[in-house]
Amino acid sequence: MTRRHFGNVRKLPSGRYQASYWHEGARHVAEQTFPAKADALAYLSKQETKVREGAWIDPQAGRVTLANYANGWLAGRSDLRDTTRAKYDHLLTNHVLPALGSVTLTALAPARVRAWYHDLAKRHQTTADDAYRLLRAILNTAQEDRLILESPCRVKGAGQVRSAERPVASVRDVAHAVEATPERYRLALLLCAWCQLRRGEVLGLQRRDVDLSQGTIRVERAWTAPMGERPVLGPPKTDAGLRTLTIPPNVLPAVRDHLARFVGSRQDAWLFATSTGTALSPRNFNRAWAEAREKAGRTDLHVHDLRHSGLTWVAASGATVAELMRRGGHASPRAALLYQHATDDRDRALAAALGDLAQASEVPATGVPSSR
Questions:
Q1: Beta 17-23 vs 26-29: how paired, if at all?
Q2: Cα–Cα–Cα angle for 45, 46, 47, nearest 5°?
Q3: Bridge partners of 8?
Q4: Is the pTM here over 0.70, yes or no?
Q5: 136: in domain
Q6: Which residues are tagged catalytic?
Q7: Residue 343 phi/psi, 5° resolution?
Q8: Do 39 and 69 have their domain in common?
Q9: Per residue in 311-345, pLDDT tens?
């Protein structure tokens, strides 16, 4: 056996060489043997450099399978909302672990992750990106835990949020849809569009959430649907969803009328209820909306598009990002920025403003000063 200042090299009966070293109170033996003594010494030199630079990873630690580590990672995430936990569990169970779960962390190479992602993306692009973001988060934690030296999630462009451009309804479109809706549900559409509430937030409203004297509405609860489970009533989607909004004056009369005709006198009476007085579920409301959009000639619109349209109207009115975040109950500026895209009406208003600027500056209609 050859001894050196870091590690040991010994010749095996087979004629090959074995390298080993002590670190953090344990003896570590190279996973492979070497044909020449110089190769074994070179291996030890690399390990010594890693130890000195703080880049050393215990080769035994990363031998846990992705399934075991991922399930432990999810179980330990006490910060996750129930809906988020359900979504992660669904993605792991159905899309990540069937293909990669039996692979150890150290054996999970970038090529394997890339092949898995592209195969899933061919069939379900959005699901592939969701699953990839989850896998990346898990393996980033494994890297922080020093189970692997670096994450194998290196697929360019993977994990991006690819939200298709949603249709925007005009004020007239919404009015037509409201007229085509049974009277007891009309206010729900108005609140989605003009107060920019999510469907689940609207259906979670109670009489006590409406303050007619102040003209406000308070969002404190909402229907949420954990992936693969039935919708349940709980807190809003995010903490930012807890908010008080001013009701536009054009909607206030409809709120008063609805409270008087369709809502019980108790403070905890639901604004939108079934015949038995329980909260109306999203599924039941969707049936009424399907008929309304058909009659309004906008079958391309989903309920969420009413909120999307309303937020687009707010943005076109000149709202700041912070104002959009508050109005929409967004937890991050990124979501609010989605609504600051151009609209035809806003573009015409901007063009008119430019014309006024030119007129005030006495610039000719051609925009080109006449020669003198």
A1: antiparallel
A2: 90
A3: 3, 20
A4: no
A5: yes
A6: 198, 304, 307, 330, 339
A7: -125, 160
A8: no
A9: 888 887 777 788 888 888 877 776 666 665 545 55
